[in-house]
Amino acid sequence: MQKNSSFKLPPGTPGCLKKRQLLNDQELSPALCREYGEKFLTLGWWDDALDFFRKARDSEGLEKIIRHGLETGDAFLLARAGEQAPDLWLRVAEKAKELGKIHFARRALEMAGETEQAAALAPPPAASPGES
User: Fold this and answer.
1) Cα–Cα distance between 51 and 15 in angstroms, integer?
2) 111 neighbors 79 (Cβ within 8 angstroms)
3) pTM for this predicted structure
4) Contact at 8 Å (CB) between 12 and 39?
5) Helix ranges, 1-132 (H)
6) Which whole-number Å values give the CA distances from 69 to 15, 56, 113, in the listed order?
7) What residue segments make up the domains of the chain, in order of their start?
8) How far is Cα 130 from Cα 132, in angstroms, rounded to an integer?
9) pLDDT in tens, 23-76
10) CA separation for the pair 16, 36 (Å, rounded)
11) Residue 32: which of 50, 52, 47 has the closest Cα?
């Protein structure tokens, strides 16, 4: 596998090791966390942004993540954003189905407590060798 050495992070955006160091820093201010979260949002790196918004306990940043999860049917990102109401999970499931993200829809239905509906979206069991 060839590495893409031409990719450079924008100035002021921490790489993976620096990000880990920052997230583990007990003295990191909420304001700086929000700033990093916003930088990652501009790059479209939603999971990284979420990490910093969570550390800052930034409700406005978290709301951006939740809106994105709803708009894109991303149940997994939404689950990382914290506990959500069942009706929000149902809306995410609908959006995910609409976008053809069946696995995401199934996860959202599970999170909403709709186990029967989630099970209906499960892929059929694979045939055993020798079965027709």
Assistant:
1) 14
2) yes
3) 0.82
4) yes
5) 16-24, 30-43, 46-56, 59-72, 75-80, 86-98, 102-111, 115-120
6) 24, 19, 18
7) 12-57, 59-123
8) 7
9) 999 999 999 999 999 999 999 999 999 999 999 999 999 999 999 999 999 999
10) 13
11) 52
